[in-house]
Design a protein that fits this description.
Distance between the termini: 38 Å
CATH class: Mainly Alpha
Structural class: mainly alpha
Number of strands: 0
CATH topology: Cytochrome Bc1 Complex, Chain D, domain 2
Low-confidence stretches: 20-43
Number of helices: 5
């Protein structure tokens, strides 16, 4: 029981730190636009126009478990993490995960079910958005 409380507390703390990091990175980028006035973006920077379809599909199909901005939740791991960088989990791994599901192997969230609501083309757009988030966070 004590271990479970500590584990939950640690997960909450990690989520809080990851959220703060995403906000900090978004603020840092907004402030470094070569003298141009930064746009107000709220807590998470909005994706560039060419990635907005992927962002919307991510929010509709992935964010319940993987969190807004890919920072993870109590139900699923953060995709903005070095474990999911392209040299460890290539784009094809995201396609397989959506199409067939995934047995838990890096985290203790349980198995990921297949996602029937997305087609391979949707996953391509989602992956482009996730890779952009990872680049913003300095993962690669």
């Amino acid at each position: 029981m004590l271990f479970t409380r500590q584990s939950r507390s640690m997960k909450s703390s990690q989520l809080l730190w990851m959220t703060a990091l995403v906000i900090l990175l978004g603020t840092t980028q907004a402030c470094s636009q070569n003298g141009a006035e930064p746009k107000a973006t709220g807590t998470l920077a909005s994706a560039p126009a060419e990635l907005r379809d992927g962002e919307q599909k991510f929010n509709a199909n992935c964010s319940t478990c993987h969190g807004g901005g890919g920072v993870g939740t109590s139900q699923g791991p953060p995709l903005v993490h070095k474990v999911y960088e392209p040299n460890h989990h290539g784009d094809a791994a995201f396609q397989r995960a959506a199409a067939t599901g995934v047995k838990a192997h890096h985290w203790q969230f349980g198995d990921m079910p297949k996602i029937n609501a997305v087609k391979p083309e949707d996953v391509d757009e989602i992956v482009k958005y996730v890779r952009w988030l990872q680049k913003q966070a300095g993962i690669f």
